[in-house]
Amino acid sequence: MTSIAGTPAERIGAGTRSPYDLRSTYRGSVRAGMVAVIRGIRSALAGRGGLLGAVHGDRALLGGRLYIGSVLWALVHLSLGVLLWALGAYFHRDGAVPGVLLATVAAMSALMLLRRTAPGAALAAGTAVLVVDAAFGPSSGVYLAYGDLLYAACVWGRRRSALGALTGTAVGGAAVLAVGAWAYAAGSLIGGALGLLQVVGLYVMVFAMPVVTGWSVREHRGRADLERERAEERVRMAELDRARAVAEERTRVARELHDVIANHMSAVAVQSTAALSRTTPDPDLTRRVLEVVRDNSVQGLEEMRRMIGVLRAGERPAEERVTPRVDEADLLVRTAREAGMRVEVREHGEPRPLAPQVDAAAYRILQESLTNAQRYAAPRRVEIGLAYPPDGRAGTLVVTVENPLPDGGAAEPDPMGAGMGLVGMRERAVLLGGGFTAGPSADGRVWRVRAELPCALLEPSGGSAQGAASDGAEAHGGTEAGR
User: Fold this and answer.
1) Which pTM was predicted?
2) Are 480 and 439 in contact (CB under 8 A)?
3) Core-most of 241, 270, 428, 457, by most CB within 10 Å?
4) 66-67 and 342-348 as β-strands: parallel, antiparallel, unpaired?
């Protein structure tokens, strides 16, 4: 195919100057300048996300079949194509009707309406229009519009369409370079090396630049979409972490409320029920019961005040200053004895300072176990064991509480209990990395609670400690539900 400026230049070089030749040379210069200006304007608009269809989220029409930007951009190209056609910016072939080139400009501009919705199909149809235009012309307006279809296929088309545009452009560029080099070597190329550079530069500007720019925009959008997905994932993870933290805090508060309120109120309920069940008045017994009720009420109120103070302060370190300690278990033992329980305490090893979390967990386990013993023990007797590790070395604090069961095994569930006591004891042990078991002995005569608490505070784990706790739950799950 002869270049648009080839024939006039050849005639000028042959010494056949004519008004037509001069006019064609002038038109060729104007056409080349307009091509450069139009390509620069379009690249700037596309790079900035301009009004004429380069924006990523312009308004859709006809149910998403068209976009306002595509319509405006097609009208711009149609106007430029008609203007270039009117100026004669096309190759004049003998016997060719110029109106055909105007039709190809209109057809290519119409295909630009599909640059967002069907860029691959538009590019395929545009290639056919380009072939027809080359056969009758070619014309500058068609090449400008075809370059935009290449850009649209690389940006909005499927990856297969984008790869097809890239491959076709690369193959076409190699063919143009090979033919130009062969013509240059044969000495038949007008302008020599400068003519070869002009042909290659024109091909790069019209075909290669839209493809390279489109792929750059496509990769940039791909990275932006990936970063947006990562940001959304981080937001979702933060929401999950927040929900998990809220759930853990609610569980902790529920556990503390149970330990503070349920245990003392249970003792009050047990003692008042025992006093009301007597048929004959006993002033001494009534006085002892009232003293137990008063002591448990005062203790419950004091612990409630301390817990409310911690919640209002919003400081986790302040909680350590108000958590109960094992060495305060004498108050629990005295209260149980005043309620009529026989309590025996056996200590093994030398008592030692413990971490606040371990101290509080051991105290609450003793408190809950003594409360359960007051409900179910028959006869009313309980044995407490505290085994401390050797001083100066890490080890395990073992807490055991045993009480006899009535004849016939474990008692029926108390309507006042909801089974939360054992759940709370197990949670405290597991959160410290320890183990917990609770249930009747093999002969069904003794209820035994055993908690192993590491003296050096460990990170909460869901491994062996959780397994040990769950093993105990599986072995005694049916009996624990009622306590």
Assistant:
1) 0.46
2) yes
3) 428
4) unpaired
